[in-house]
DNA sequence: TTTATATTTTAGCTTTGTCTAAAAATTAAT
DNA sequence: ATTAATTTTTAGACAAAGCTAAAATATAAA
């Protein structure tokens, strides 16, 4: 049976959500997709029907192997297209998400393999997220949220968890982007906001909400990779 | 109001059909889109509603200016993507049609302008069809069908009118492709089939049906272009 | 110019994906 | 351990796009 665009959107969103929690909830998925819980329930039934996820009513759900495989392929397409848009078409890394959301649904397998080759088999997309290979292998990265980073420890921004354009705009305004090296100068327990220092720039303050969504790798873990 | 994927397909097909006949008929459109006449009628009402075409029931229809503009943009996207697939991703010119059918529906205007620039503003797609510019200007070409070409006059293949993969396969098998120079050696009035000679190859016979769909430019008209 | 044929449209149904409002189940709180 | 609050599901509607079968219109033929 065919996997429609909407089903692909659901699979991808479930995949991302279950990375963090094991089980995904109806409400979480609905809000991730900007849709209604009732609509999610409808879709869950179809995806279960198609044997793409494990689901029992009122009990939460998660992708099975089939579902994960499908989701990873969509993510692969999304990230390869983002790479293409930034590296070949000169888009900024904060402008490409919506376009890639459309391109990721183009179905041709051959297209994506050739695109991969054309791009030189990149390993990470412009936001630093790893690109699954054609076998669907997704290398896991040891990265942590900026809010978990210890004080005065330099780290490099390796990803942005929640890529709304508002968020990306805020980061850009503060000269924080992929690869930026930074450290936490001060933590304010009152609201968990952080004072951040980027080299050659005055310090800036980030809210807990933002910090939670900025992913970093500290130098050790970068070194480890080499 | 939004133009859905299906509406785009209809607009494009109507545009192509009305290039040949002035008015398009319900049946012709239905068979071009491999759908049913009743479905076409439904869609025509919606497109008329959206003021994209001129239509009165039982009387045929054609695109108005708005509709033409929309159709040309879709054709522009289709042809730019085809060019991309062939020139950058190394697809054969006979493999790209279906993929471009999907890619042409990606909506971002900015994407297509940057793609155009990335490709170096090509003027024709891999089948020799002209690519409309960003203003929607479509240069008209003086080309004729192979079946109208005079005997023993060398001409260059400039386009394929009906691009089914079966047709393209047949042509490829006979080493006829875009840019191939050929001439007609013999015409068989019995079934209007033609004996064709391509340089360095043994002569081959083409049916009238195929010949009708192979478009050529004779050397004069090529020269005229310079 | 009637009659026959072909084309087009209407009427009514189906599927997919979405929604709201109400009911059911689960979880939390007193 | 009940009651209260939250979450999830069901029931019922709707819009988009397509289909079949029947009716309406137009075109061709006798």
Largest sheet of chain A: 6 strands, antiparallel
- β-strand percent of chain A reads 15-25%
**Multimeric state:** homodimer
How many β-strand runs of chain A?
8
Rg over C-alpha atoms of chain A, rounded to the nearest angstrom: 19 Å
Your description of this structure?
2 copies of one chain form a homodimer. Chain A has 226 residues and is of the alpha+beta class. Helix content of chain A is 43%, strand content 16%. In chain A, the strands form 2 sheets. A 6-stranded antiparallel beta sheet of chain A has the order 3-8-4-5-6-7. Chain A has a two-stranded antiparallel sheet with strand order 1-2. The radius of gyration of chain A is 19 Å and the shape is globular. The N and C termini of chain A lie far apart (43 Å). The model of chain A is unreliable at 219-226 (pLDDT under 50). Chain B binds a DNA duplex (30 and 30 nucleotides) through residues 4, 6, 25-27, 35-43, 46, 57-59.
Question: What is the structure about, briefly put?
Answer:
2 copies of one chain form a homodimer. With 226 residues, chain A is α+β, with helices and mostly antiparallel strands.
Strand and helix map with partners:
The structure is a homodimer of 226-residue chains.
Chain A: H1 5-20, H2 26-32, H3 37-49, E1 53-55, E2 61-63, H4 65-87, H5 97-103, H6 109-118, E3 144-145, E4 155-160, H7 165-173, E5 181-188, E6 193-198, E7 204-206, H8 208-213, E8 214-218, H9 219-225
Antiparallel strand pairs in A: 1-2, 3-8, 4-5, 4-8, 5-6, 6-7
Chain B binds a DNA duplex (30 and 30 nucleotides) through helix 3.
């Amino acid at each position: 049976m065919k996997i429609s665009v909407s089903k692909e959107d659901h699979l991808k969103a479930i995949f991302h959500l279950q990375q963090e929690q094991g089980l995904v909830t109806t409400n979480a998925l609905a809000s991730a997709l900007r849709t209604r819980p009732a609509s999610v329930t409808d879709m869950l039934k179809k995806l279960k029907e198609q044997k793409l996820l494990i689901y029992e009513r009122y009990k939460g759900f998660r992708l099975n192997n089939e579902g994960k495989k499908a989701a990873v392929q969509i993510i692969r397409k999304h990230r390869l297209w983002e790479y293409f848009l930034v590296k070949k078409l000169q888009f900024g890394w904060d402008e490409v998400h919506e376009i890639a959301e459309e391109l990721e649904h183009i179905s041709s397998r051959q297209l994506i393999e050739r695109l991969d080759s054309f791009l030189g088999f990149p390993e990470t997309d412009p936001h630093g997220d790893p690109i699954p290979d054609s076998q669907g292998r997704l290398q896991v990265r040891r990265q942590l949220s900026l809010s978990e980073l210890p004080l005065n420890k330099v780290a490099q921004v390796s990803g942005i968890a929640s890529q709304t354009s508002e968020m990306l705009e805020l980061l850009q305004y503060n000269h924080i982007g992929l690869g930026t090296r930074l450290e936490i100068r001060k933590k304010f327990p009152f609201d968990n906001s952080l004072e951040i220092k980027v080299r050659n720039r005055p310090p800036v303050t980030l809210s807990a909400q933002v910090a939670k969504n900025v992913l970093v790798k500290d130098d050790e873990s970068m070194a480890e990779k080499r």
